[in-house]
Design a protein that fits this description.
CATH class: Alpha Beta
Low-confidence stretches: none
Strand content: 25-35%
Length: 178
């Protein structure tokens, strides 16, 4: 695999997350009813960063949860295996809340669909919105993000790799030829 291009460096990731944070505040008329839920793995630190931005802008702490969608994926066959590995951490009531799901890359839409199913299994939120750092196209489901850091048209032979300080010891998004 060869690196084709650096798409976002650390400063560009920060700017994208700041913009997404402002858009969330504006589109929800403030932050009184919102909760952020990061999809494991890289959606979690992104959700935490957005929550930190929102707290800095609005002076209000936002609930942030961690969602493991393994149980809800459509590409795993053994339901007993799936049920034993759920590591979600959502320690707040989602009923009646505006939930913002956060993930690093939107591709086919299957991960987001699984995330929506996982959220609904916990209760009925007022709404579910979706924020992604990168939208690379190639949807297989009728899913669209509400908040996008960067639209990046790709070919199926390319891979978008998001690396985050909290997990990978650096912040960058790169495009790789498979």
């Amino acid at each position: 695999m060869e690196i084709k291009a650096l798409i976002l460096d650390d400063k560009a990731i920060s700017r994208a997350l700041i913009r997404i944070s402002h858009e969330i505040i504006e589109n929800n008329n403030g932050v009184d009813n919102i909760c952020l839920v990061g999809i494991k793995t890289r959606g979690v630190p992104l959700a935490n960063r957005i929550a930190e931005n929102i707290e800095n802008f609005e002076g209000q702490k936002i609930n942030v949860g961690c969602l493991d969608i393994t149980f809800f994926r459509d590409d795993l066959e053994d339901i007993t295996q799936k049920a034993s590995i759920d590591t979600s951490e959502i320690n707040f009531n989602i009923v009646g809340k505006d939930i913002i799901l956060v993930d690093d890359v939107l591709f086919t839409g299957r991960t987001v669909r699984a995330g929506i199913d996982a959220i609904i299994s916990l209760g009925r939120p007022k709404s579910i919105q979706f924020a992604t750092l990168i939208d690379r196209g190639h949807r297989e489901l009728p899913i669209r993000p509400d908040y996008v850091g960067k639209n990046l048209p790709t070919s199926r032979s390319e891979l978008v790799k998001v690396q985050l300080l909290e997990i990978d010891d650096k912040d960058e998004v790169i495009l790789i030829n498979k």
